[in-house]
């Protein structure tokens, strides 16, 4: 406690800045891959690829864990309200900028509750847990993480309440970080920070001096919010002109779709002839009915699922019986 009676300014742990720097670098890598995939500059759809989806969830979980850690480090001795509201306002403003920017660029899949929206709300929700025992905070966090594994309801498919979680089919948006399960990661981070600070390990961590090779990560970690806001416009400013400058003989969206479809079909154990015929039928239906905007949505939606099911039904009906079982249309 300071002489003025206000909470003392907490010490800064370099390891947190390093970890935050690692997380922001990973996020930039993921978004770069997402942009390349969206503009079909790489032969993979990272929104459905298992490895990339795991990578995305690790990044998101890491960021939210660090949100919990940072809240305890900054306000565990007493909430520093001016700094809390200043950072909250910056994050909220950033979230609004993301919504406006994505609505302009991707009106059908704009971000209405992404990572910044979640951090702003979760920071408010987490304040009461600064005074609760760590074991209780961890227990509540576990509930948030586990409940979505056992409960879902079609009502939560509605974008107006999808930010809560529990959907059966996620709404069409480029980024969605719902309360369930992701607030649980913030609470786990808070519990972990409280336990570490109450142990002898805290002194060792506080005294740790990073090697010079890690200094760039510290800088990135301390400017993570600004980097998050500007990195996508920079990436799009580089990648979009490259996508438009592709030679006339570059693979078209039809080529890319067929290639991806055939690869998925073969991975399901079907023959080359079957996959070629089925994917040819699927892309013919997409072109005929102008379904590209639906099929290429980055996240699953009821409209997309219905279109895929209809294509599968039509193409299955046209397949020769000797070609085997038809795979999904994507």
Automatic annotation (TrEMBL):
Membrane-crossing segments per the record: 12-34, 54-76, 88-106, 112-130, 135-156, 176-197, 217-243
One Pfam entry name: HGSNAT_cat
Keywords: Membrane, Transmembrane, Transmembrane helix
Name of the protein described by the UniProt record: DUF1624 domain-containing protein
Residue ranges of every copy of the Heparan-alpha-glucosaminide N-acetyltransferase catalytic domain listed in the record: 12-233
Keyword DNA-binding: no
InterPro entries reported in the protein's UniProt record: HGSNAT_cat
């Amino acid at each position: 406690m300071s002489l003025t009676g206000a909470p003392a300014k907490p010490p800064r742990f370099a390891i947190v800045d390093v970890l935050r720097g690692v997380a922001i670098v990973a996020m930039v890598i993921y978004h770069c891959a997402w942009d390349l995939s969206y503009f079909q500059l790489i032969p993979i759809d990272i929104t459905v690829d298992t490895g990339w989806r795991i990578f995305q969830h690790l990044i998101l979980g890491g960021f939210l864990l660090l949100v919990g850690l940072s809240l305890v480090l900054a306000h565990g001795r007493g909430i520093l309200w001016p700094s809390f509201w200043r950072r909250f306002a910056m994050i909220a403003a950033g979230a609004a900028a993301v919504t406006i920017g994505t609505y302009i660029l991707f009106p059908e899949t704009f971000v209405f509750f992404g990572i910044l929206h979640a951090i702003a709300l979760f920071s408010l929700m987490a304040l009461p847990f600064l005074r609760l025992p760590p074991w209780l905070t961890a227990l509540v966090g576990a509930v948030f993480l586990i409940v979505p594994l056992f409960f879902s309801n079609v009502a939560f498919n509605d974008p107006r309440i999808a930010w809560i979680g529990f959907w059966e089919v996620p709404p069409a948006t480029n980024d969605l970080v719902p309360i369930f399960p992701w607030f649980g990661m913030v609470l786990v981070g808070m519990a972990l920070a409280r336990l570490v600070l109450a142990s002898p390990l805290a002194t060792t961590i506080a005294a740790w001096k990073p090697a010079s090779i890690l200094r760039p990560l510290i800088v990135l970690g301390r400017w993570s919010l600004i980097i998050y806001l500007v990195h996508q416009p920079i990436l799009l400013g580089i990648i979009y002109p490259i996508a438009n400058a592709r030679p006339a003989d570059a693979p078209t969206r039809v080529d890319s779709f067929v290639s991806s479809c055939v690869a998925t079909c073969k991975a399901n154990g079907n023959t080359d002839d079957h996959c070629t015929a089925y994917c040819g039928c699927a892309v013919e239906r997409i072109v005929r009915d102008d379904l590209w905007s639906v099929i290429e949505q980055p996240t699953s939606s009821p409209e997309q699922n219905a279109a895929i099911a209809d294509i599968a039904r039509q193409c299955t009906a046209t397949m020769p019986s000797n070609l085997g079982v038809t795979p999904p249309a994507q």
